[in-house]
Amino acid sequence: MSKQMKRTVGLWGGIATAVGIVVSSSAMVSLGEGFGLGGSGFIIAIGLALILNLFVALSFSELSGIVPRAGGLNHYTLPAMGPLVGNIAVISGYVLVTVFSGSAEAAIIGNVFTDVFSLNVSPLIISLLAVALLGFTNLFGVKVFSSIQVVLTTFLISSTIILGIIAITGSGTGETVSTNLEFNPMGWSVLSLTALAFWLFVGVEFVTPLAEEIKRPNMFIPLSMVLGLVIIFIAHTLFGFGAIKYAPLDNLAESGSPHVVAAEAILGQTGYFWMGIVTVLATTSTLNTLINAIARMIYDMGREGQMPKVFGKLNRWGTPSAAILFMSFLFVFFLIIGFTEGTSITTFILAGSLCWMIAYIIAHLNVIILRFRYPAAKRGFKSPFGVTFQIIGIVGLIYIIFNISSDPSQAADVYKYSLIFLGLSVIYSYIWVKYVMKRPVFQPVPLDELTNHRQHSTEEHSIDDKEDISNV
């Protein structure tokens, strides 16, 4: 009898997963640079990015209710547009992007850890040990992952909010800068910062690969994403406005670690040390979420034959060990070769953001297609107002893609890296589907084939759904 995943993740574990990848070092860089470039007006870009991501959360909530499996976007795309698009969406929008950005995040752990604690150890050694430890702990079940994630996320969010409140109320030990700043010095050009702001929210849908392991999924998955987005918005807004009260805009815009600059300006050495710890833990949280969620996407593709079958197996603790080890190996490999060291982290952020937006467009299209193809299908959650939010979301994402950066040379680099990500994904996906799976590349998979597995665990799931919310 095949091993089954068990429902052990509660609501706060779901929120921690949704928030875990978002509260990252690269997101803090985006936040600091955005406020440095746009001043208070950056809140306009943040607000637009929040709305678009709320639309994304609605689409993923509906898709997860239709196909409540561990594969995430891949499984939602199979009944809508077939295996080729499903492969491309996951590999380009998740696997490749997160390998590159995750490797950069892992490098930050070593650099900041050795700087803050003045250790005479190679930062690479610290980074490799962090990846090895997180990969190892994820082998022992989602409950271990969830426990780690809850602790990390609680500390990170509370630290960001507390630092923001200290700064906004003028309670910091540093000197405040001029408070007579123009609200939106960039005018309408501030909309060009929306792609940078978008990175502050991407990844909340990482809770959907836990669809077979989260309690009360029809309720907790939508709640986890929406509450996660709101929490992130509050935390980033407080810290951002606090940062520009103490740190000059130019210092934030030109720094490679503007969040550290801001924290030091607010609380001096205490702020520097505090933000150093936050940065290390934020990166740890991000890597923990990436290893866990992406491994489950790969696992589900292995089950469907879209990747080698070894990835579609669970170990004795019910985790996809081969996929977890594969993701950990990729992080280690790119760390060792130093792939991301020669490129601006902001360029990688924008390139990753663009690929993620393409994945989100595919998710919106999936909802629209499945509404018309399977109007009577059981949906644990249904996005309101027909497909209005999906259409608005697609238009908004396309606008951001074509206005990815106000700097033409940076935009060219972003499009270059994005095309590389997409090109590699298309080549692999076409060869695998056409010649290994030997299936029509655009032939949709019948929805019944993807939902049959629920018959084997209906009793267990119904018990979980009746579980009192006080046990979360």
Automatic annotation (TrEMBL):
InterPro entries, A to Z: AA/rel_permease1 (IPR002293), APC_superfamily (IPR050367)
Q: Report the domain of life of the source organism.
A: Bacteria
Entry's transmembrane regions: 9-29, 41-63, 84-109, 121-141, 148-168, 188-208, 220-244, 272-299, 320-339, 345-372, 384-402, 414-433
Location (main, coarse): membrane
List the subcellular locations.
Cell membrane
Keyword entries, A-Z: Cell membrane, Membrane, Transmembrane, Transmembrane helix
Point to the regions of Basic and acidic residues compositional bias: 453-464
Annotated region Disordered: the residues are 453-472
The reply on keyword Membrane is yes
Q: Which topology term describes how it sits in the membrane?
A: Multi-pass membrane protein
Please identify the protein, giving its name as recorded.
APC family permease
This chain's source organism reads: Lentibacillus halophilus
Lineage, uppermost ranks = Bacteria, Bacillati, Bacillota, Bacilli, Bacillales
